[in-house]
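[step 3/7] fold_predict: job queued, chain A
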Amino acid sequence: MTLLAGLDVAGRPVLVVGGGPVAARRARTAVDAGADVLVVAPEVVDDLLELEASGAVRLRRRPVREADVADVWFVWTCTGLAAVDDAVVGWASARRVFCVAAADARTGTARTPAAARIGGLLVGVLSEGVPDPRRAAAVRDRIVLALLDPATDTRAGRPESTGPDVLQPGEVALVGGGTGDPALMTVRARTLLAQADVVVTDRLGPTSVLAELREDVRVISVGKAPGVHTLPQAGINAVLVEQALAGRRVVRLKGGDPFLFGRGGEEVLACRAAGVPVRVVPGVTSAVAAAEAAGIPVTHRGTSARLHVVNGHGSLTELDLAALRTPDVTVVVLMGLSWLDRLTAEALAAGVDPATPAAVVSRATLPDQRVVRAPLSGLAARCAAEGLPSPAVVVVGEVARPGLLDPLLVAGAGVEDAGAGVALAGAGR
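[step 4/7] structure written:
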């Protein structure tokens, strides 16, 4: 039988024998656990050299000796040479030091579990009897998926629980939810969402995950649409502060990234002014992802070397217009569909080439994603004729030219080289 136990190696000496990729991974694991790591091997891979250069490990470039096992708390032997690994296991056993033999776990006195850290939890799975690492890894992955499910309550039961993925009572997390597809949310975003008592949400982003939240989670919708604001920004700030001061774990679920036209900075300032702890979780921004979902690279060697991101609310600035007139610049306009007529008219009046390739990606990454391509001069009319819904992202520049990536089309992007001005429906994935 195998005893599953957590070993505290922080500040304690741990020996890793071997200089290959497996040894590098085990050394990194020990470093992350705070151990004092010694690596012994005649030759080592670059990853171990980088760890040594950073001061994370000590290296001895020579064959392992019995004396190396003295005074250590734990050993990994990862040479892949049976005679060497067996000798290390024997030396460790004689000193009552547990040792993992990476090449054949049956010969060691300990095993390395299939492990993952998530939400302040360390999940580890071991197979009993004959080692079966593939099975253990598959079970671990299923457990991790369950922990990422918003319906799973992973709130810390003890107030002293800490960690980068632990949401504390009275804390606000501004979470970038990405473009709308829940599969594009980060692991940290999903982890914190599963710990929330209150979720303050926009109409954009991955709203489908709200239906999966636990029944006791309060959802407060503060979404804004063109001309319709459920709450002004000051009211949203007040909600975040009020809920946190009541001792609740608060997730502010935002579309895209909180700091790209998301007014996340204002929410951080409001929380700090009220003495509320606040953190920010980056999200996948539609400034890049929407174009990518349509098979359009925002930069492409020989075509575009720079990216200019524009807020579609209001008029174009001189800087925006200069970017639109520059052939090797891609201009991405967020929240610009409702003002597309005015924006294109301003651009054309300022001397932007009417034939400049352009595209609009509506509801990017969602099942009903649609893409319209047209020369800039006809883009607004084409979108109006197709009845494209928001949210939508406008991409202007040579990268939007049909056929640019024909040999390398993104699988499932639904992009067809059918000439300028063709609406491409059913482009979801």
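[step 5/7] annotate
Confidence is low (pLDDT under 50) at residues 408-429.
Residues 133-148 form the longest helix (16 residues).
exit 0
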